[in-house]
Structure formats: structure tokens, C-alpha cells
């Protein structure tokens, strides 16, 4: 299924794979850790991630799976959240890691490091959500220049999609079309001009190139 729709809200889970939390020298969260990426920064499949010339510190790719809901959720139960998940696709949460590290040390939010223009990519092909058990068996695979650098089953996530939606819906009213990125596994890697990125999960994939601009 190809869904061409303007993004409204994009929520993201942080440190939702324990091994990734550890590679960042952090403890896995005891409750869902979530943040926003601005819809306007996203690019699509086949488009180019542009690293601005003024950004000289490390930039990482983070292979992720995104889910999309088709029902309004507010103070929703896990069962209601599970029923609201309609589709999934691949995403890449590009992160200005050096800026993120500086902001974390200063006690500041991640907004700058996660929201540079084009620092988010999302596929245009959305597959039907197969249900909790089948979804947990899917593998997310992230490749950098045709080398696999990230690979994990979605069942390895600390919080599944419904649990995360349940928590977020306590704070926000989620509406049809809202998207949640589910977090990235271990193996986040620095990227540079000329790199080719690929994310695969189930029947969907996402490809992007990298350019210094």
C-alpha cells in the first residue's frame, strides 16, 4: 500500500533497544522515552540527506520502523492502541550526534540534533500491520554502503508499539495519520558525503544518499 499523506505528528522512541542504550553509555529506560521530529524536515525514499557545511561534528544514521495509526487515541488502553495500528514502513532517524552529546551534557532537549532539515527519512510504501506476534518476528536491517551495520528483531524492543502509544496518549490526543518511530537497534554509524543508506523490514525498504551541502 502506498500512502501519500502530509505528516501531522511524528513521535519517536529513544533507547528502545537495550543494546543501543548501552552503546550510548546509558541505561535502558524504565518507561517509554519519546520525543518529536518536525514533520517538515522529512524526506522520502530515494531523496538525499544533506549535511550542512557548518556541521562538522559526527552525524549518525539510525535505522527504524515507523507505524501509522488510523484511529484517534487519548488515554487509550494497550488493546485500543494495538487496534489503532494500521501500517508500517521504514525510516531513518538521522542524528547530529555531537550536538546531541553537547545538549545532553547541558541538560537540554534533543530538538536541535534531531531536526536539522532532511535529518529524517521515511518510506512511501506502507505495509499492512500484521498484528503483534507477527510484527515482533520481523527484522529491521540497516545498511551503510551495502554493509549491514544494524540488525534486530522487533521483538527485542523494550516497549512494543502499543505500549508506547498508550503512554504517549496519556499526554497527547493522537489522531488518524500520526506516526511513531519505534527506536533503533545497536550499531548506529557515522555517515558522510557520498554514503548510501538502506533500511529494510518485511516487505518495505528505504534508500537514501548523503551529501554535504
Secondary-structure blueprint:
Elements: E1 10-14, H1 18-23, E2 33-36, E3 42-43, E4 48-51, E5 59-61, E6 63-69, H2 78-84, E7 85-92, E8 95-96, H3 97-105, H4 111-114, E9 120-122, E10 127-128, H5 132-137, E11 139-144, E12 147-153, H6 161-171, E13 179-181, E14 189-190, E15 196-201, E16 204-212
Parallel strand pairs: 1-13, 3-9, 4-16
Antiparallel strand pairs: 1-2, 5-8, 5-14, 6-7, 6-13, 7-9, 7-10, 11-12, 11-15, 15-16
Helix pairs in contact: 2-6
Q: What's a quick, concise take on this entry?
A:
With 213 residues, this protein is an alpha+beta fold. Helices cover 20% and strands 34% of the residues.
CATH architecture title: Alpha-Beta Complex
Mean pLDDT, as a whole number?
94
Q: What is the count of β-strands?
A: 16
CATH top level is Alpha Beta
N to C succession of SSEs: EHEEEEEHEEHHEEHEEHEEEE
Kindly identify the CATH topology: Fumarylacetoacetate hydrolase, domain 2
Structural class: alpha+beta
Q: Helical element count?
A: 6
Helix content, binned percent: 10-25%
Radius of gyration: 16 Å
Main β-sheet, in a few words?
A: 8 strands, mixed
Q: Could you name the ranges where pLDDT drops below 50 across 5 or more consecutive residues? A: none
Q: N-to-C terminal Cα separation, in Å?
A: 33 Å
| The CATH H-level homologous superfamily | Fumarylacetoacetase-like, C-terminal domain
Shape: globular
What is the beta-strand fraction?
25-35%
Amino acid at each position: 500500500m502506498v500512502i501519500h499523506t502530509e505528516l501531522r505528528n511524528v513521535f519517536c522512541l529513544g533507547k528502545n533497544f537495550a543494546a543501543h542504550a548501552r552503546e550510548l553509555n546509558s541505561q535502558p529506560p524504565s518507561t517509554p522515552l519519546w520525543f518529536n521530529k518536525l514533520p517538515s524536515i522529512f524526506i522520502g525514499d530515494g531523496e538525499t540527506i544533506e549535511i550542512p557545511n557548518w556541521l562538522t561534528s559526527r552525524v549518525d544514521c539510525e535505522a527504524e520502523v515507523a507505524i501509522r495509526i488510523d484511529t484517534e487515541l487519548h488515554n487509550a488502553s494497550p488493546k485500543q492502541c494495538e487496534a489503532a495500528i494500521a501500517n508500517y514502513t521504514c525510516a531513518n532517524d538521522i542524528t547530529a550526534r555531537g550536538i546531541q552529546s553537547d545538549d545532553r551534557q547541558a541538560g537540554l532537549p534533543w530538538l536541535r540534533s534531531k531536526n536539522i532539515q532532511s535529518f529524517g527519512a521515511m518510506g512511501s510504501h506502507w505495509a499492512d500491520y500484521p498484528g503483534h506476534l507477527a510484527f515482533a518476528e520481523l527484522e529491521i536491517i540497516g545498511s551503510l554502503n551495502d554493509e549491514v551495520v544494524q540488525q534486530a528483531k522487533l521483538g527485542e524492543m523494550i516497549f512494543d508499539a502499543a505500549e508506547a502509544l498508550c503512554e504517549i496518549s496519556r499526554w497527547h490526543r493522537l489522531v488518524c495519520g500520526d506516526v511513531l518511530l519505534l527506536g533503533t537497534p545497536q550499531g548506529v554509524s557515522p555517515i558522510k558525503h557520498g554514503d548510501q543508506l538502506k533500511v529494510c523490514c518485511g516487505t518495505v525498504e528505504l534508500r537514501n544518499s548523503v551529501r554535504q551541502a
